[in-house]
């Protein structure tokens, strides 16, 4: 719950927004109508220091023990910085969904720094489960890092200022990837996508929720801190292109998988955490629903006890590529995510949802679990060992994908519930 004006707090959330307020009338968020607000937030830390490191690079290792190294760009005072730029795609024809994600991280004061490509495909129906794959790849040999462009030997991720007024596009995102040697599960990963992005938004002034080492008065304005959670949302876009990879079969051979995407609806999300994940939130919930005419997007996190157990929820509704409703809640439990039914994971101990309700009048009674993801299990061994010794956490992601309905229109929903501490 929100504190009274005289209370001291260590967490300053975004402002609450009544979703019934017309989109063009609210002054509590900014609509995004061009690609400039989509630039890498972490790039502002030290673009000069980064470029000097590229020019003088002698070691491309992702693990460093000093302020130097390939990605010596984050302020020394920062405990951690993690930024993800994620494109979720939902192919309504094939039922196949997934995401392509670039992740930048500097963890635990710089013990681990680097870029990573995360790639996931899963099906909304049991009959296309053969496509299921979730892989992560370190990106070495970064040759260019600009606010709207990242280039490595194998990946190009670039925003283009190509607006299409008839289509309603604010610009485009081009993703190209060619990884001839991949992990044990997949090989020969090739991605060539062109995405038309439609209107987005961020909460004023810059999409941030702030964390403080010392309590401040809850009425203080213009607060700021290096420790924050920040989000920028583009709830709707359309993607064209193809993805192909060779997937290892049970007999050890490889079989080629190819996805041809034609006007497939997508969500683009930029997220930044300026402190350790277990300090930023104790749990998360996420929704991405896509149908022919509608997109419903929601994201929610709850701060740990140290930051007063605030729950922050943001959601939006898009109809025919235009935002028609944006809402956020901090003080009203009625506008937070609710688990209508649950089950207990005997291994991890987490109680995860089997039926769920989101604000914006979206609910799913028959959640179909497609992945149970042990987060620490995917970290480098050194980082994982330190995390387990320093803090007692056991983060798990429960990911769901299933046919759903919104306003009586059939579509597909991707839902995630994450538990950290």
Feature tags:
single chain; 421 residues; mainly beta; seven-stranded antiparallel sheet; 25 strands; 5% helix
What do you see in this structure?
It is a single chain. This protein has helices at about 45-55, 275-280, 380-390, and strands at about 10, 30, 80-90, 95-105, 110-125, 135-140, 140-145, 150, 155-160, 170-180, 185-195, 200-205, 210-215, 230-250, 255-275, 285-290, 295-300, 310-320, 320-330, 340-345, 350-360, 360-365, 370-375, 395-405, 410-420. Helix content is about 5%, strand content about 55%. The model is unreliable at about 45-80 (pLDDT under 50). It has one domain (about 10-420).
Oligomer: single chain
Provide the succession of SSEs.
EEHEEEEEEEEEEEEEHEEEEEEEEHEE
Shape: globular
Q: Can you give the helix content as a percent range?
A: under 10%
Number of contiguous helices: 3
Share in β-strands: over 45%
Cα separation of the termini: 20 Å
Low-confidence stretches: 46-78
Query: What's the structural domain tally?
Result: 1
Tell me the major beta sheet: 13 strands, antiparallel
Backbone CA Rg: 21 Å
Overall SS class: mainly beta
The average pLDDT score comes to 86
Count of strand segments: 25
């Amino acid at each position: 719950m929100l504190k009274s004006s005289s209370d001291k707090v260590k967490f300053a959330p975004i402002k609450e927004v009544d979703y019934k307020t017309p989109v063009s009338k609210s002054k509590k968020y900014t609509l995004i109508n061009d690609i400039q607000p989509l630039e890498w937030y972490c790039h502002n830390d030290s673009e000069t220091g980064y470029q000097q490191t590229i020019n003088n690079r002698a070691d491309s290792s992702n693990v460093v023990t000093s302020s130097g190294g390939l990605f010596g760009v984050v302020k020394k005072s920062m405990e951690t910085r993690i930024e993800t730029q994620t494109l979720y795609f939902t192919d309504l024809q094939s039922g196949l969904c997934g995401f392509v994600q670039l992740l930048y991280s500097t963890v635990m004061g710089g013990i681990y720094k680097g870029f990573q490509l995360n790639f996931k495909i899963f099906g909304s129906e049991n009959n296309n489960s053969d496509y299921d794959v979730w892989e992560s790849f370190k990106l070495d040999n970064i040759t260019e890092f600009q606010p709207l462009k990242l280039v490595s030997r194998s990946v190009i991720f670039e925003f283009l200022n190509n607006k299409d007024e008839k289509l309603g596009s604010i610009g485009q995102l081009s993703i190209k990837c060619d990884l001839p040697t991949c992990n044990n599960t997949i090989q020969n990963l090739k991605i060539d996508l062109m995405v038309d992005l439609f209107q987005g938004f961020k909460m004023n002034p810059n999409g941030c929720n702030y964390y403080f080492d010392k309590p401040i008065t809850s009425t203080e304005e213009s607060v700021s801190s290096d420790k924050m959670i920040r989000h920028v949302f583009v709830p709707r876009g359309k993607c064209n292109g193809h993805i192909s990879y060779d997937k290892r079969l049970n007999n050890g051979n490889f079989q080629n998988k190819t996805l041809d995407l034609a006007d497939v609806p997508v969500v683009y999300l930029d997220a930044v955490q300026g402190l350790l994940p277990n300090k930023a939130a104790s749990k998360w919930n996420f929704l991405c629903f896509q149908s022919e005419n509608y997109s419903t997007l929601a994201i929610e996190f709850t701060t740990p006890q140290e930051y007063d157990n605030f729950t922050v929820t943001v959601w939006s509704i898009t109809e025919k590529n235009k935002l028609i409703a944006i809402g956020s809640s901090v003080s009203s439990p009625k506008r937070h995510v609710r688990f209508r039914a649950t089950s207990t994971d005997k291994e991890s101990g987490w109680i995860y949802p089997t039926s769920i309700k989101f604000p914006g009048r979206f609910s799913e009674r028959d959640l179909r679990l497609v992945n149970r993801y042990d987060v620490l299990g995917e970290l480098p061994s050194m980082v994982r060992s330190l995390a387990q010794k320093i803090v007692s956490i056991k983060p798990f992601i429960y990911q769901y994908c299933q046919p759903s309905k919104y306003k009586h229109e059939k579509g597909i929903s991707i839902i995630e519930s994450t538990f950290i501490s």
